[in-house]
Amino acid sequence: MDITQKLTQLKQQQRYRTLKEVHHIEGKTIRLGEHDYINFTSNDYLGLAQLPFDVEDFMRFVKRYGINLASSRLVSGNSVLYTEIEELMSRYYHFEDAVIMNSGYDANLALFNAFKGEEVVVFSDSENHASIIDGLKLSRISKEIYRHLDYQDLERRLAVYPDTTKLIVTDSVFSTNGNLADIEYLVELKHRFPNTWLIVDDSHGLGLNYFDDYQNIDVITASLSKSVGAHGGIILCSQLFKELLVNTGRALIYSSGMPTSNLYFILRNTQAMLNEPYRKQHLKQLSLYFNTQLYACLGKKCDLQTPIKSIEFNDYEEAESYYQALMDAGMLVSYFRYPTVSHPTLRFSLTYYHQKSDIDRLFQIILKQKEDEKTDV
């Protein structure tokens, strides 16, 4: 393999990526190099990743539980803290049980591994997260990919397999554009077609509660690095399915458990997420205000209340010009390209730390860039 040639090809295809060094973060401000930016790239929607750190509380915790068990959960790494967190989360979301994983990515790998070798067909939304795609590939399960949020297409495909076990798999909130799956309708399809499971990746919705009907979902996976603001993942499921995961989930079996010090942050932040609803309310108001400004400034209508917003562009040069204009003005946003998205897209993530004035400033820059492009033409 010619590595240089491959990298050159990625650059020519506008798919080349680099790592940016972050020097500091505080609230909505992030420092890259010598410059501070208003951060619209974070998934810390509720601001829990930056909860004040109580050193004395943390030291009492590690004195009691230790810092790191340094072992797989199936050997000697299964701290009692796992049980406490799993019981807390499963009780709140009305599931029989839960499994804490090292990441949301690992959660989806372990989930689909449980179905490996079984006579099942997965029906997956075309815009589902990469971890779902990779989990399906590694498990070698038969799959049908239905068009994004096109449930008539899904229904037609389900009807082809009347006697087969079927798994409908979807993100709840799609990470690149903030679109919401219609969970209520998917529950209806699950009941209409026999032998059907509904599996939801709720990574960008957990804690924000965009749907109420958790009891009719068979399995939920999620990252804990978004609304929970900690590192890890979770699978919410039945007690029987958890037993199966413990015996088949390779990402669980062959990974060391997390340091107990990390479980401290998961437990602390989960409790805050469940007990501080004002964070969610502030985020909802910000989302509605962003939608209002998006329509007023660009004529684009958005009714979604998720904290993920996006603007799609026709070509890379246009997207690059807006991205750079925002950077130059001290606004850091996410710039997505193929294969993450089909068209170049700027994504804006709202968090608890933002104010309406930050959104106003964002659109002032976008409007100025729009006017400058008209002048150049």
TrEMBL record:
- UniProt GO molecular function: 8-amino-7-oxononanoate synthase activity; pyridoxal phosphate binding; transaminase activity
An example GO biological process term is: biotin biosynthetic process
Tell me yes or no: is Ribosomal protein among this UniProt entry's keywords: no
Keyword list (alphabetical) reads: Aminotransferase, Pyridoxal phosphate, Transferase
Q: Which InterPro entries match?
A: Aminotransferase_I/II_large, AON_synthase_class-II, PyrdxlP-dep_Trfase, PyrdxlP-dep_Trfase_major, PyrdxlP-dep_Trfase_small
Spell out the coiled coil positions from the record.
none
Does the record's keyword annotation contain Transferase? Answer: yes
Q: Which domain of life is it from?
A: Bacteria
| Aminotransferase class I/classII large domain segment(s) | 36-364
* Co-factor requirement: pyridoxal 5'-phosphate
- Family matches, as Pfam families: Aminotran_1_2 (PF00155)
Q: How does it assemble?
A: Homodimer.
Entry protein name = Pyridoxal phosphate-dependent aminotransferase family protein
The record lists the lineage as:
Bacteria, Bacillati, Bacillota, Bacilli, Bacillales
